[in-house]
Amino acid sequence: MTERQHRILAIDDNAYTLRLVEYTLREAGFRVTTAISGEEALNHIEQAGLPDLAIVDLHMPGISGFEFAHLVHQYSDMPIIMLTAVNHETTVVEGLEEHAEDYIVKPFSPGELVARTKRVLRRIGEFAYDLEPQTRIDERLLIDFPNRTAIVEGKAEALTPTETKLLYILMRKAGRTVPTDYILRRLWPMEPVFEDRLHVHLHRLRRKIEDKKDKTRPRYIISERGAGYSFRDLNADSSRSLDE
Among 9, 134, 136, 155, which residue is least crowded by beta carbons within 10 Å? Predict the structure, then answer.
């Protein structure tokens, strides 16, 4: 089985920087799409689905890099690397605490960019399902992350921003238990929160996507008592059934 080629979205209003980032990452084996503004990048995501990671300039006309990160993180936990000439300590700290997994100051070394990109992807983990405009889970469920919608047996169910981001976090690590404290940190990184708040959102999400005819046996989101939650890896289940 060949390793999946990661998709990277590079966003910068400087054409030279964008070409350099694109060439560097393609030479390293990544699939790269470019955008010259935050608005163009958001439109691309709506049409093509979320990438595995985005590399984002900070100061751009229109939507800034931080604003882009905030908008995307309304419905996902997509990892972001800020790539910018701004190296003020307060800006770097804000970027790392609130918006990005890493922060690279221009001018940058191509080798460093590749190494940091790989490191973030290793730390965050590979998304377990194919990220498309509508990500198919199985025959009854599709998820449209940018439009915060679950299509359940052909019927659209609107998801809240928190429900959509929660689903992204669990699906990214499908088949593995995601600790409760990790989920809380990713959903509300700047707020002190308790598990009860997470339970409310999980309950509402389950009501929208699980089989209403059999409420006792969740099909997708499994509670791991005392440990956390997991999203069933239906791709792995299909592979096992074919092998048996």
Answer: 155
